[in-house]
What we know:
Elements lengths: L30 H16 L3 H11 L4 H16 L1 H11 L9 H16 L4 H15 L2 H14 L4 H8 L7 H8 L4 H10 L4 H11 L5 E5 L6 H6 L2 E3 L6 E4 L8 H4 L3 E3 L2 H12 L8 E4 L6 H13 L2 E6 L2 H10 L4 E4 L12 E7 L14 H4 L5 H18 E11 L8 H4 L6 E4 L17 E2 L2 H4 L5 E7 L3
Parallel strand pairs: 5-6, 5-8, 6-7, 8-9
Antiparallel strand pairs: 1-3, 1-4, 2-3, 9-12, 10-12, 11-12
Helix pairs in contact: 1-2, 1-3, 1-5, 3-5, 4-5, 5-6, 5-7, 6-7, 9-10, 14-15
Amino acid sequence: MTNRGNNPSGRARSTGRRGGPPRPPKPVRDEARNAAYDLMRAVDERDAYANLLLPQMLRQRDITGRDAALATELAYGTLRGLGTYDEVIAACSDRPPEEIDPPLLDAMRLGVHQLLRTRIPAHAAVSATIDLVRLRVGQGPSRFANAILRKVSQRSLDEWLKAVAPPVEDDPIGHLAITYSHPKWIVTALRDAVGGSIDETAKALEADNERPRVALVARPGRATIDELVDAGAEPAPYSPYGAYLVDGDPGRLRAVGEARAAVQDEASQLVALALTRVPLDDRDGTWLDMCAGPGGKAGLLDAVAAQTGARLLAGDSQEHRARLVWQATKEAAVVVADGTNPPWREGVFDRVMLDAPCTGLGALRRRPEARWRRDPRGIPDLTALQRALLKEALRAVRPGGVVAYVTCSPHIAETRAVVGDMGELAETLDARAYLPEVPGLGDGPYAQFWPHRHGTDAMFLALLRRRAA
């Protein structure tokens, strides 16, 4: 006799549409994966900045703990790996990635990242991604995604790289571009910046794909390294004011909340300090930060100036960035000013910091989407702006005064090529001499930081002393 349980009608339960296959189970909504997916779509649709949007998104959705860590890993990891993952998807599909509907492609990229670069079991990665596609894209596309992801799951990352990347001996740039997920033009620029070594280029690219530690600065006279260490940080290897947060949110530190300390890359700290260490032959009371937003270097220069009796003027051409500078400083005067058409008189400053607008190739660890957003065709206009700003910086400083030209990019066109045009206006100092605590800064006279050498952003520094008229 059939056991009918609690089914009073006695009829067999339906397992699907009449005469058709059973309905698939209702997809499970995974908040961490949905947040990662929404970030991917925001980056694609409105050029959102991942490092700014994701923390806000996690707070608004109350995603914390392990779920927040998963969302962060999936979002940042997928954005870093897009170049590699699209090659893998292309090898498994009958149509190229650019012909796949972008919302579906982003979900599949998240799935490929889980399969190839996380410890998530393959069945769980596929199942969770298919649930995401069904919820956010549709039932039909989920079948296509399922077929692709199952093919992807049949090989490891190393096996896929051997299949989709050209041999390094035949095409070293193409090999590195796919293996380390960077556009070819960036691979070429980094190769040129490291002096042509393919091995070191690979190390630089690999470092771009590592998650950076949170670097902190204890602004002198306002916070101390000991205070940061007591709050859970560890001292930085080079900067006398630097520390690294082992884990957790830097905003929870009291010193950070009170703006006595801040999040600031260690190389960013050191290039600012190098400017303050150059001896001057006369007065030293008036400093300028020309392109100061969002205020990291200005915050440190302001604190050092306050200890030495100098005064800092910090300017930025955009009002919202100038407002951030005002929040980061305590004693500095802050103005909205275009550095190419400045309101200050010529020759009135003793020290000038020019942290010039640049491609940002030195901070790809922190801005994973930037490598896909930058267009090399814009570099000539950018370098023209850099030259114009540097000429104005050299006009702003008095004869015998010093200018720090800084870019968060190692691209030769933005660094040595720009500074090399200023020989008639300035003497180039050996920047390495003012950073004796840091090894491996290059052959000089410039200083070049690298993620793979120093664990910092790839910051470039040139120190220029204005010649007498």
